[in-house]
Amino acid sequence: MSKIHSENTTPERKVRKIVFRLGYRYGLNVKNLPGKPDLVFPRLKKIILVHGCFWHWHKCKHLPKTNVDFWEQKLTENRKRDRRTRRELKKLGWESFVVWECWTKDEEKLEKKLRRFLEKQPKLL
User: Fold this and answer.
1) What is the pTM of this model?
2) What region does 23 belong to: left with phi over 0, alpha with psi -120 to 50, or beta?
């Protein structure tokens, strides 16, 4: 597992390329925010989190067939941490959007989702 990178992954690079092409500029892996989010748009108060389908246990992936107890506990804890991180970000006034690794296979569809998220105006109180 030490060979697994948490930053600058292929899905992240695809998302960054699309967002840049749309004309948005962003910060990367901002350390002073909960969860060290992948892409941060300070002016918009928005965050994009790029989740690997296996490590964040997306519905497109299944548990490995060996060492099931370990993987179920590990991936369940990852999901709990993800929910906690998003709650903390929301409390701080940030709107977040999760991009799943499997979504990056269809860049046209992903671009529409990203554009919709980034162009959406915040709700007024």
Assistant:
1) 0.88
2) left
